[in-house]
Design goal:
The complex is a heterodimer of chains A (114) and B (115).
Chain A lengths: L2 E3 L4 E5 L4 E3 L2 E3 L5 E7 L5 E7 L5 E3 L5 E5 L4 E6 L8 E8 L7 E3 L3 E6 L1
Parallel strand pairs in A: 2-12
Antiparallel strand pairs in A: 1-4, 3-9, 5-6, 5-10, 7-8, 8-9, 10-11, 10-12
Chain B lengths: L4 E3 L2 E4 L5 E6 L6 E7 L6 E7 L2 E5 L7 E4 L6 E5 L8 E8 L9 E2 L3 E5 L1
The chains are: A mainly beta (114), B mainly beta (115).
Chain lengths: 114, 115
């Protein structure tokens, strides 16, 4: 079975501060890992993904994430956030047997204050 | 560039009524997915089509739910005899098996409120 845990439901930060959104997963098989972002009144948009290869992956808008197999984590980071980064962020895993069947975490609401 | 479109965006209905949602995927995508998102939760997989074939259904998809994709293009999701617990955002996503990047392209969702 799959589960995805996003440890923080809300993360408030000030503009230009660094941020880390945490994601842990449980799986007995190799997985593909994703971060999606949902801006207000918009659909989910892919930020970045890990399918294979380098464990440090870079995405859009200056975000990056590191896949850590031993800790079963895929934390999302940005060194300096902007007010426009305010959104809900979802971590998701795909077991690969049915590509596109994603198991999502509950989401982390990132709020960036001026 | 037309993305995934869903209609209607909002639906309010009374308990016991039937509702139908439509999803138009990105035109070159042959895979189509339905997810459901309730308040405070991440999206949950409901079902998946490759072309016109429905290849997988979640246990969440009770007998009151039916999804179709008759010509391998748009899809409909019908909920019969709606219950208050069906209130949620219904998300549609599409992808192409030929690019196989794992990325899903989501629509903006159809929000259902059952009174």
């Amino acid at each position: 079975a799959q589960s995805v845990t996003q440890l923080d439901s809300q993360v408030p930060v000030f503009e230009e501060a660094p941020v880390e959104l945490r994601c842990n997963y449980s799986s007995s098989v190799s997985v593909y890992l994703f971060w999606y972002v949902q801006y207000p009144n918009q659909g989910l948009q892919l930020l970045l993904k890990y399918l294979s290869g380098s464990t440090l992956v870079k995405g859009i808008n200056g975000f990056e994430a590191e896949f850590n197999k031993s800790q079963t984590s895929f934390h999302l980071r940005k060194p300096s956030v902007h007010i426009s980064d305010t959104a809900e962020y979802f971590c998701a895993v795909d077991r690969g047997s049915t590509l596109g069947r994603l198991y999502f975490g509950r989401g982390t609401q990132l709020t960036v204050w001026p | 560039d037309t993305g995934v479109s869903q209609d209607p965006r909002h639906k309010i209905t009374k308990r016991g009524q039937n509702v139908t949602f439509r999803c138009d995927p990105i035109s070159e995508h042959n895979r189509l997915y339905w997810y459901r998102q309730t308040l405070g939760q991440g999206p949950e997989f409901l079902t998946y089509f490759q072309n016109e074939a429905q290849l997988e259904k979640s246990r969440l998809l009770s007998d009151r739910f039916s999804a179709e994709r008759p010509k391998g293009s748009f899809s409909t999701l019908e909920i019969q005899r709606t219950e208050q617990g069906d209130s949620a955002m219904y998300l549609c996503a599409s992808s192409s098996e030929y690019t196989n990047t794992g990325e899903l392209f989501f629509g903006e969702g159809s929000r259902l409120t059952v009174l």
